[in-house]
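User: Show me a protein chain along with its predicted structure.
Assistant: Here is one chain, sequence first, then structure tokens.
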Amino acid sequence: MPDRRGNNRIDSLRNIVRDPRVALLFLIPGSGTTFRVNGRAVISADPELLDSFAVEGSAPRTAIIVSVEAAYFQCARAVVRSALWNPARHVKAGDLPTPGEMLAAVSGGEVGGKAYDDDWPSRAAKSLW
């Protein structure tokens, strides 16, 4: 799995160094099915491996290699009960504060606001990969 720009989950990488046991739970959009993978992970900075994950000329800084020890369908009752994929249960975007509004609220107006929200599409496009 590539560690793409913006992830910066050094805590996850540190956890792998301390204890290589990992478990991944995959949600399948539109399905009540979940798929679990258990195994051991190592972190790689091998240039050839990282180049294989390059998108638009940008390679990740590292990749996590998982050696699978078990893979199976996990009980997904909680996903089914939550109606996670039911559009009628989704919150409308307009009913939520924007990221800029949230940042402004927690920073006393020092960060965020309308300018933050307006600039987001161009920031995202420049730093996606």
